Amino acid sequence: MGRRQHLADAVPVSGAMDTVSARIANITLGNDSNCAVVELTYSGAVFFAETNLMISYAGEGSVLTVNGETLPKNKPVFIPEGNYIEQKPSGTGCRVYLAIAGGWDVPVVLGSRSTYLPAAFGGREGRSLQGGDTLESLNERSVITDKIFAALQSSSVKYPSWQVSSLNDYRKRSKDIRVVPGRESNRFNGESLSGFFTEAYTVSVDSNRMGINLIGMVLNRLNNTEMLSTAVTPGTIQVTNSGTAVILMADCQTTGGYPRIAQLASVDLAICGQLVPGDKIYFSQITWIEAEKLYMHQEEHLYKAALAIKHKYLY
Amino acid sequence: MDSFNIYQLNENAVTIEFGKVISEDRLQTITAFNHKLQQHPFPGFVASVPAYCTLTVHFDYLQVSRWVPQKVKCFEKVNNYLTELYGTLTNVNISYNKPAIEIPVCYNAEFGTDIDTVSQITGIPVDEVIKIHTSKIYMVHMIGFIPGFAYLGGMDKRLNVPRKAKVNTAVPAGAVGIAGEQTGIYPFKTPGGWQIIGCTPIEMFDINRAQSSYLKAGDRIKFKSVIKQEFEQYSRQ
């Protein structure tokens, strides 16, 4: 998901803020995990099914309903044509991902279907979706997708009893965001460093897809020598000259010149993609070896989920 | 050879540090090594991103983890590969051997909305500002900030002016700006705080090109002053 191939041209990664939920939505439909999904932030979207649809959605902070009935997450759902699908607020978090059988039909730009708003490319004409847009799915579906569709096709809303487990307990995990000390962590004084790993940080209202600004203990440097800009990635935690920490997210710039106090374990980037202003988070320190184990565990979980669905419908 | 030091950026990327000071020689080394890596990518290689003194190498963790012997950490595997490849680097002067890329710029006050201000701050007449800006050869140290934005080194110190007090909310595409000892070209309409002295008709960033950014790290460029008619001819091409 996202595009990493053009980072040298300063084209950001983009893509889903919560990649795990986005991938789960695709997996449950038998889609390739690179299929385009719609990222719905907060709530209020309404869709009209012009044809029979098979969708899936995953994520936090809202639910999708049809005729007042809440659709379950993390599983394929058949919706007959003529129904309205409404997004309603529910619980904590802020993003759900809507996938459709075959993936949404938006063009591949620079190797990816991801939208990048600041330069207005990718996705639907490089912009956010608007009322009145018609979205279609791609015609090429996998054999598994066709089998799931055939099994669910009905005259009413229908879904199977199975589901893919979420992997992330967003509320619990946000109290323990795992990070590895960054390249410039030794530029901070001891008090700031220990504070970073023990104090609560609150998500600021001026957070967006580029970065999550944190309010909390000011992080002071041992000296104020400027550093040369170098590569940063989603998950890099930079500290600005005023001592504020910022978690760089999906649309972040490709290079940065602020000291990097820490780097998120990749598996916890998805958790941060669900944070809303006012959320309190805590950081804990792990090693790259631990971060890589967590990453392998996540990938195995998603791989096994896809495999289980394949076995269920193909054999 | 420059010092060569690799650290882990995340699970899927490492950064190679070539010392800590900006220099043209360092840029040559990074450009040459990047070129070599592009020609000899390892299985799972995704992208390499040059910056002032670093080259960051992005890869696919799962693919690298499948290299034999599987028990060795991905970081070690990539580290060993890059270190070995660096040992084979002989010619580091590839970009010195290429001609400078000419960038046409119209410095009319209509496009160079701050050129009069620059002239006032520096005490240098507008004609002379243009002459100084077009007389230098600039090195592209890296592409960063926004897609296609080149950080150029080599500006004449006489043109050192502060950023604008108020950020311009919509600098047009192609605008050529200066600030401090830096000069650069805005690839598309965006907010910006540099003093704008002209505009180029060249599309600095184009999603329909194989190389979306017109410039890349290691390129050498030269600005050429053009009149408005020439600017418009370029724009129509």
From TrEMBL, chain B:
Query: Which controlled-vocabulary keywords does the entry list?
Result: ATP-binding, Hydrolase, Nucleotide-binding
Q: What is its EC number?
A: 3.5.2.9
Q: What class of enzyme is it?
A: hydrolase
Q: Which InterPro entries match?
A: CT_C_D, Cyclophilin-like_dom_sf, PxpB
Residue ranges of the Carboxyltransferase domain? 4-215
The record's annotation in Pfam families points to: CT_C_D
Do you know which NCBIfam families this protein is assigned to?
A: 5-oxoprolinase subunit PxpB
Q: What is this protein called?
A: 5-oxoprolinase subunit PxpB
Organism encoding this protein: Mucilaginibacter limnophilus
Tell me what gene encodes this. pxpB
